[in-house]
Amino acid sequence: MHQPMSVKKRSRWTRLRAAHVVCALMAGIAGAAFAQNNAAALAPNAPSTASIANDAAAQVAKLTLEQQVKWLRRAAQSGTLEQMDDAQLVALFESFDPLTVPRYIEEGPNGYPSYEFTMLRQERIRGVWPRKPDHMLVRLTRDPLRIYGKWLPGGPHSGQEIIYDESRRSDAMYGHLGGLFNIMPLWTSIDGSLARAQSNHRVRDLGTEFITQQFLDEGRKFAEAGITHPAQIEVKTLEGVRVIAFTYETPTGQPEFYAKKEVLGLDLRHPYFRMVESYGNDGQIFERIVFVTITPKIFEDMVFDPKNPEYKF
Fold first, then answer.
1. Bridge pairing between strands 146-151 and 134-141
2. Whether 181 contacts 167, CB under 8 Å
3. 118: CB partners within 8 A, 6+ apart
4. How many CB atoms lie within 10 A of CB 58?
5. Domain final residue pick, 97, 126, 143
6. Order of strands across the sheet that contains 261-266
7. Is the dihedral of CA 35, 106, 297, 82 positive or negative?
8. Keyword Signal: yes or no (predicted)?
9. Helix (H/G/I), strand (E/B), else coil: 165
């Protein structure tokens, strides 16, 4: 973590105040927090220069942990993070207390009570990395957990469909393999060999919340191993999704940790991850997930009914 910069002399702030006021009005999110620390408000909408990015990071570094979490939440919700260029984002997140991002994510919300998302997913199954990712449409609602999933065209399992409804059967899902012959739908265990043939995860693991919880669980192990800061912070754009990505490398890797190295891409508007890449002890990637779209929605019961005429069960 970067140490806070020394406080400038009052005369210098006086000379710069006029220039900072215009930018601070554009940012419009951090005045109160910075006033408590006798610092000028940030200007994330100002022209992108290395000096401005470093100055913003220095100001954020002066805040307490609680203030940083609140500032980050406001900056995300207002769209300020999205408007920052890559250099500003990297400098900003490098200046945070090591606990700021985990606290921001833990406080959530890490998803929605009911939402639809599309995702790209690749997993190494029995040592084989798929040539193309699966492209999926998922509709999910909670209390009770109900899931409809469809494999979209362009992926290796196009046409497959599944429905999971824990209020009907918490231990099984209903689905068909799709394809040309549209094999008869059947019930199968969520932990059975058929379910694991295409994924190392259960159907209940679909969604942004699972990745969040995995990050928090692994984070506790990171702390115990002395890992308090990502090995790298960078901006990535995958499938049109721009994220701030954190790379964590573990000293021992598997089986003590889920992966030897993980790259997690944080959404710039919400406290959940839009992408994750996991690497084994051999350095090979074994999992990549990208949430391309995430849309809150309210669903009728028919969405989770195999008799829905839109489906091919």
1. antiparallel
2. no
3. 135, 136, 137, 138, 152, 291, 292, 293
4. 19
5. 97
6. 186-189, 172-176, 161-165, 146-151, 134-141, 114-123, 285-296, 273-279, 261-266, 241-249, 232-238
7. positive
8. yes
9. strand
* Cα of 135 vs its chain's centroid, Å: 18
Residues 67 and 120 in one domain: no
Please answer whether residues 123 and 199 qualify as being in contact, where contact means their C-beta atoms are separated by less than 8 angstroms: yes
Residue in the block written with tokens 């210098």: 12
Please report whether residue 71 resides in a domain: yes
Q: Judge contact between 69 and 104, C-beta under 8 A.
A: yes
Tokens of 155: 């992926």
Say what the pTM is: 0.80
Q: Which two tokens stand for residue 158?
A: 């196009």
Is 128 exposed, middle or buried (CB count within 10 Å of its CB: 0-12, 13-18, 19+)?
exposed
Cβ atoms 138, 116 nearer than 8 A: yes
Structure token digits, residue 276: 């994750």
Whether residue 152 contacts residue 135, with contact meaning beta carbons closer than 8 Å, is answered with yes
Residues in the chain: 313
**DSSP 3-state helix, strand, coil percentages of the chain (rounded to 5)?**
30, 25, 40
> Are the C-beta atoms of 267 and 256 separated by less than 8 Å?
no
Domain count for the chain: 2
- For each successive 10 residues of the chain (313 residues), what is the average pLDDT? 37 37 36 37 44 72 95 95 94 95 95 96 94 96 96 91 94 81 79 81 94 94 89 94 96 94 97 97 97 97 94 89
Residue 230 and residue 123 share a domain: yes
